[in-house]
Amino acid sequence: MATMMKLIVGQLREALIAPKPVLRVESSQDKIRMEHYVPLHPQVIESMQPLLRGRPDAELMFRHGSFWMWAKRQKIPMSRINGHFVLRDLRKFAEQYGDVLQWDQSNRAYVLTHGVWGVEGSHYRNPVPETVYGIYMNAWEDVEFTI
């Protein structure tokens, strides 16, 4: 949520027109201050395009709390547990389902900025958008998100 609330329309617009769509999260926008790329699943792209129409590039993509409040009100049921979806479930889902899909652990840690502390994660790895997207899509391309 902390990162999401700092994204601007222009960042998403730029990511969506790229041949391999990745969102560049600036270090000032990330919780652990790590600049990184986040690949965008084709279904995310489809959902985001209408939200960009008529909005200036410098505008915050998600008004403070608006997406969080929308998601909270939706009461989207979970398929495997008795409960409904909350935003914190996204990271947990990516971690757990990433194991099922055999999503490369290094790529997963980088995209989620989870477990990337230390010299190795912050100084030696410098992935390019195309590689980040390719590894992500190898695992997630055939996953269909439904409500």
Order of helices and strands: HEEHHHHHH
Beta fraction = 5-15%
Major sheet: arrangement of strands = 1-2
Multimeric status of the protein = single chain
Can you give a write-up of this model?
- This protein is mainly alpha-helical.
- The chain has one domain (4-61, 72-140).
- Helices cover 47% and strands 5% of the residues.
- It contains seven helices and two strands.
- Helix 1 (9-17) crosses helix 2.
- It is globular.
Would you spell out the secondary-structure blueprint of this structure?
Layout: H1 9-17, E1 22-25, E2 36-39, H2 42-52, H3 66-74, H4 89-101, H5 105-112, H6 118-124, H7 129-140
Antiparallel strand pairs: 1-2
Helix pairs in contact: 1-2
